[in-house]
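WP5 quarterly update. Target: Anti-sigma factor antagonist. Source organism: Mycobacterium rhizamassiliense. Length: 157 aa.
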Amino acid sequence: MNRAPAESYLSPVTLSAHLLSELGDPHSTLRAAIQRTGPTVIVRAGGEVDGSNEDTWRQLVGEAAAVATAPGRFIVDVSGLDFVACCALAVLADEAERCRPRGVDLCLVSCDSAVARLVEAGNLSAVLPLYPTTDSALSTADAADPAQSAHGPLTGR
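Structure tokens (predicted):
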């Protein structure tokens, strides 16, 4: 019998009806899967984020981030996105600033060099640490200083 704490199991996150409608629209270019494990929330995004769906992206990020609790992390995996506009990273940077006072660290996941360049060009490395995998973002390394981890952020290397 597994005696691991219940919080170690992944569970879905409930989103607002409006957001579900937006994401479920057959013409939507944005897809997302959201899971919670203990105090940590993971968003896996697919499709595209640009000016045409920035409001939906902002709502998705805001609703998902609200579920994360200290000392957890809010992990946004954009590896499944085919296109990431600057506005997508601006939304994440704004949310990271809102999460920080609550004791929640936002971690961005992507191996795409274009995402890394956008983070660097926007001087967002300090607020959006970039990890190569979700597992590395979930690691036990100090989330406030991911550079201490062997799997720390990709930016700044």
